[in-house]
Amino acid sequence: MVRKRRPRRPRKPRIEIEKIESTDPWKPKSTCPDNSEDLEILATDLILDLPGYVNREIQRDRQSNEDYLERNIVIAGRPEFEPLPIDDMPFFQEDINQIFLTTLERQYRDSQVVELQKFHWLFLRKSQRQWELVNMFSIEESLLGNLPPQPEDSSNGVFARGIRVWLQGCYFGDRGQETGVKSQNEE
Fold first, then answer.
1. ∠ CA 180-181-182, rounded to 5°
2. Domains in the chain, start-ordered, CATH in brackets?
């Protein structure tokens, strides 16, 4: 009796994904860099972790929102620190620093995948203990190529919440901050 072999299924080729490495491979996630007083150094570390933190906030928002648009942050771009001259914003003070970020967001609408750039304008202030996000504005790239949209106050949105959670985890060094648990170091 001869056994017949079943034909083998062709193997799918493996896709190689380039991993973005931190400049300091031994630095654990969610800890402040050695020189956390320097906003540029802090922001560079923030960018590496930011998509994960914002995506977790998007998932939390999804649970309480019936009109949820499925989306995720793919990557955050290099921060810019050149401030714009502004005088007429009520929250703006001398000790406020500006950061500009670009993110790539993937949205799933009906059966289509749409990738959009979003531009974020962050206002941070150094308190006695840490950097804090004071205010934030965001603009979505214009799909129609018309006039650019007006910036929207996104200070309470998922992106701002992700930044605040990262900053808390950075300064208090507690991964529990991601779930809203207060650190024992926090008074």
1. 110
2. 40-85+92-179 (3.10.450)
